[in-house]
Amino acid sequence: MPEKKILIVDDDRDMAALIKFSLTAADRAFTVAFDGVGAVEKAFTEAPDLILLDVMMPKMNGYQVCRLLKNDRSTWHIPIIMLTAKDRDKDRFYGMSAGADDFIVKPFHQDELKEKVDSLLAKSATAGKACPIEARVRADEASLLSKVNSLLDKKLQEMTFLQYMIKALVSTFDEDRILGTVIGGITTYLGYRHVVIFMHDASGAMREAVSEGYPRDGAKRTFDPGDNETLSRLFHSKEPVILPGRMLDLSSGMPAQKGQDTVRQQALIPIIRREEVFGVLVVEGWMDEPPFSEERVGVLTTLAGQLGLALDNAHLYRSTLHLSITDGLTGLFNARYFYKRLDVEISRARRYKHDLSLFMMDIDFFKGFNDKYGHLCGDDALKHIAAILKQNSRETDTVARYGGEEFCVVLPETGAENAAVLAERIRRSVEDTPVDPGCDSPPARLTISIGIVTLPAGLSSAEELVRLADKALYRAKEDGRNRVCVHAPTQP
Fold it and tell me: Does 275 share its domain with 388?
């Protein structure tokens, strides 16, 4: 069995000797560096199987060494355990952000050290080593420091970009704006011209939600995740997948034809909401665009995560808004929204000199119906009436449950005559359509009374308009119910 090479990096020579003594075994060889520059040089020239890296060192600290090694094609795969005597939580955060694989606080327990080293050595023996990230740098001090500064600048740019994107995403609950913000960020700031976001549709397939850089032929791209092994793997693992060339044909979701070598890579990033993949961000990297380095994939993955969170928040906002303005039993608008909408329509009718009608309706003898058949059947009757109102109203109308067995309909740009025609049609439909009360009872017939008012000259109060419609409704009931009554304006 070949020896495992372990690089120990610590400016404290006694500590380096203690670590070596703790890990000594027949199948292990050790090399030691006492500063950051020496650590990088030995990592490049001696190809260790594992690095134990102190944080505070001369010339380059452990975070800088770790970030540099994890961004070089020849050393990115080497496991790194960071050692520090400082505050655990803070150093763990910075160490892991730099790419460290594990973390140990000094003074350490020898058993803990051995366990972590054994685990990472076993893992590194089976890990692939063919994920090039960036070109190899020269191992002289000036070049290394320049490289570290370049990496830090790039990291700052990426963090600034993500902060900007997160701020933009949380500023809106509009899904189209959210998707457009992500597409625009990727094309404008990350430098990729071809981007598609797929989302689950009602059938369970993935359908294009938004795209940039492709011909707009009117047809939305779709694919079935089960039809492609790579896509199935992405949905199962919930991890990004990097494909060479244009392996995914964005018109069908199946492997593309050969000859499309202008595309260097495709990055498929899952969009996750509540632990489930409900979308895929597909970014094509062409030959003249930035390659998909490990950190670049990390940026796209973070962005996809924020996209999933923003879309989930937008969905929750819509659901909450819907619940706040909707009657839970019938699905119609509630009285609160009715008054808000009526105020808007009155102002609009006054501004543009349009007609506006309102009718209030009440189910006749509904208490007796409830007493005879029970409240559950009464609820079914209310839903039955609501369905008839929906079927006979326009998109511009506002249909609401006012309370109990009372309903109301706001009719923009509708005069008294047309409102009466609609009200009569609804009245007949209710009378002619029985309700099944269940319990082996015969179908039960309901009737309704309706009062109508058309916006009089000079009136601008929603409450006053409702009062006039109520007066007409009361007269319909006094006249025998199951009828429509139109409010007659007072003659001057």
Answer: no
First CA to last CA distance, the chain: 109
Task: In whole angstroms, give the CA distance from residue 56 to residue 77.
Answer: 23
- Write down the pLDDT at residue 420: 95
| Same domain as 346, residue 424 | yes
Give residue-wise pLDDT tens across range 13-49. Answer: 999 999 999 999 888 999 999 988 889 888 888 889 9
The residue type found at 104 is: I
Provide the angle, in degrees to the nearest 10, between the axes of the packed helices 13-23 and 110-126.
Answer: 70
* CB distance 437 to 368 below 8 Å: no
C-alpha angle 67-71-72 in degrees, rounded to nearest 5: 125
Cβ neighbors of 99 (< 8 A, separation 6 or more) are: 66, 67, 69, 70, 71, 80
- Tokens 């994890």, located at residue: 70
For the chain, give the number of residues: 492
Instruction: Please confirm whether the linkage preceding 58 is cis (ω < 30° from 0).
Output: no
- Please give the pLDDT value at position 415: 94
Residue 85 covered by a domain: yes
Residues 202, 75 within the same domain:
no
Instruction: Tell me whether residue 431 is one of the annotated catalytic residues.
Output: no
Supply the DSSP symbol for 465: H
Single-letter residue type at 395: E
236 and 93 inside one domain: no
Taking residue 70's Cβ as centre, other Cβ atoms within 10 Å add up to 20
Query: Does 178 reside within a domain?
Result: yes
Task: Select which of 208, 295, 345, 405 is catalytic.
Answer: 405
Provide the number of structural domains found in the chain.
3
Query: β-pairing, 222-223 with 206-212?
Result: antiparallel
Say yes or no: 314 and 374 in one domain.
Answer: no
Decide which of 233 and 476 is more confident.
Answer: 476
Task: Give the SS3 label for residue 14.
Answer: helix
